[in-house]
Prephenate dehydrogenase (Mariniflexile ostreae), 566 residues
Amino acid sequence: MKNIYIIGVGLIGGSLAIDIKKHNPEAIIHGISRKEATLDQALALNLIDKKATLEDLVHADLVIVSIPVDATVKLLPTILDKVPDSGLVIDAGSTKEAICKVVENHPKRRNFLAMHPIAGTEYSGPSAAIAGLFVGKTNIICEVEKTAFKLQEQALNLFAAIGMRIRYMNPESHDKHIAYVSHLSHISSFMLGKTVVDKERNERDIFDMAGSGFASTVRLAKSSPEMWTPIFQQNKTNVIETLNEYINNLTHFKTLMESDDFEAIFNEMRNTNHIKEILNGIN
Amino acid sequence: MKNIYIIGVGLIGGSLAIDIKKHNPEAIIHGISRKEATLDQALALNLIDKKATLEDLVHADLVIVSIPVDATVKLLPTILDKVPDSGLVIDAGSTKEAICKVVENHPKRRNFLAMHPIAGTEYSGPSAAIAGLFVGKTNIICEVEKTAFKLQEQALNLFAAIGMRIRYMNPESHDKHIAYVSHLSHISSFMLGKTVVDKERNERDIFDMAGSGFASTVRLAKSSPEMWTPIFQQNKTNVIETLNEYINNLTHFKTLMESDDFEAIFNEMRNTNHIKEILNGIN
């Protein structure tokens, strides 16, 4: 893989660029972005070797699409139109159903691999890119059987080189479960941040009282709205389901407090404590 | 301060024991606990030098009370009864109103200092104790004017030695604001953990999909129910207020999603993003 094109050189695209270049020093990493400033920054940070445009994709051995998921749905058919027959296109979106759907009948569907690397931080843009982000992280691959075998092989070699663990899943299951273990956490964090910031707007000193527990629970409220709004939009039905259940659980907890049933409050917490064992499996 | 008694040798008491001993090598650290096994563990971990009982407090130069806040309310008057006139008693509870209230008319009120060190982890018990836990952390002191001046001075020297930043506050303000920046985070985290664990109970593989974002938002769900139930009980009114606001914000977010108002969803997140600057001030 000599000519590699990264569309969207932010946290995920930029971090992939660093690791791919490390394991393929002979590759030329081309960056593509709507914003010239992003490409300038990516060049300055040595994430990419060259700037490029969509027209250049005719030369692509590999294309990584790491842009907001609404942009991926719009652009993916055009990207597949342009790549050569030997080219592999991989998207890194946090939703998979709408993205797989939009190319299901594309004549070059076999050139496409749908993935979701479970890796990231709350930061965004080229400056958020870091080396080794994917080591030991899970990479969910959807509809692997629809990708040409030779291109699957290339992709798996690449993922192995940068240290990812592979899990296969269908797009519907991905979107349903990721709503629970990722999308809901983001909403919980944004709304927790909003609740506290609204309340304490005029009492900035109060944040002196906040410790690492608060910081941990609201960390995701720093995430990019450009990235997350289309995720919630594409995964609307599943996310609303998780929100209903979360709100019901919070309301039940509040009702127990209002009725002074602190034995039940204790049991609610004790029963959730075993999440320790689950979390011990997560980096 | 030669004879120091730590009542409750867990995360906070044990960590204080380590740091106090480091800065006062001549001190003898006595441990007191309901459970013999806890004291054995604390001795084995070198957190304490000796086991003791409440009867021994007649020899105390300093007593640290770091037990669940319901136990503090019950025990604090007895502890004050026993200490000598020169003894300083400090509690480390996460609520302050009920604790200050129970000793407001105690003849030895001037021997007591109410504090809340904003430090900790999600772990508990002697094995959770760590050196340097308090470096750079905020220590909230309530009703400082009610403590004898000489004892205030001793306490402040101790806090300075172990690296804490001091903030003064009245107990009512403490309990009101800490509900937002600490207690609500714990409930949010416990209920998020419950929502996901309940849903995915039969699909353990799903946790392979969980990344650092999920881990961060549910980390506090590992916290001790023994410690947290009485905190919620003592701070019931404030905690219910924060829960109402949090549930309203989540419900509003859900309503925006249901009505496909993703522009408003975007703005909700954008407006909360500035929590970045606030969090940058927290370790």
